[in-house]
TrEMBL record:
Organism of this sequence: Gulosibacter molinativorax
Keyword match Nucleotide-binding: no
Residue ranges, annotated region (Disordered): 69-131
InterPro entries: DUF4229 (IPR025323)
Transmembrane annotation, as ranges: 7-28, 34-56
Record Pfam families: DUF4229
Upper classification of the organism: Bacteria, Bacillati, Actinomycetota, Actinomycetes, Micrococcales
Record field: compositional bias (Basic and acidic residues): 69-84
Compositionally biased spans, kind Acidic residues: 85-99
The protein's name: DUF4229 domain-containing protein
Alphabetized UniProt keyword annotations: Membrane, Transmembrane, Transmembrane helix
Keyword Repeat: no
């Protein structure tokens, strides 16, 4: 089944399955204040039931079309842009030029790191060694 035909059939049947019960409720209960609410609820239940029972092929065709579009969009977005490639090359070059200069914090003792963090958190406080 063509997807354009599936869209048309699905939407048309769902609308008719909602409008017909809604109109019947509105005509049967014209003087009641809440007739529109009952009509909406009954129409939604009937429309959902008909969709689940009779429109399986149309729903599957629509789902397959949506999945194909999403996969095509994802494949398009996965291809790196030239700017991304240049940025990656620049970052790799910076890392290669650094020659391990970023490992000073990893070589420090844990106590030194804790003292530095405490000093940064409280800039006015004196270190414990000086007290």
């Amino acid at each position: 089944m063509k997807t354009s035909r599936a869209w048309f059939v699905y939407v048309l049947v769902r609308l008719l399955a909602f409008i017909v019960p809604f109109a019947i409720i509105m005509l049967v209960l014209p003087g009641w204040q809440w007739n529109w609410l009952v009509g909406v609820i009954v129409g939604a239940i009937v429309s959902l039931s008909i969709s689940q029972i009779f429109l399986y092929r149309e729903r599957m065709a629509l789902a397959a079309q949506m999945q194909e579009r999403a996969e095509a969009r994802a494949a398009k977005n996965e291809q790196p842009r030239p700017m991304d490639i240049e940025e990656d090359a620049d970052i790799d070059a910076q890392i290669d030029d650094a020659d391990g200069s970023g490992t000073e914090a990893a070589d420090a003792a844990p106590e030194d790191v804790a003292d530095d963090a405490a000093a940064q958190a409280e800039p006015d406080a004196e270190p414990e060694d000086k007290k």
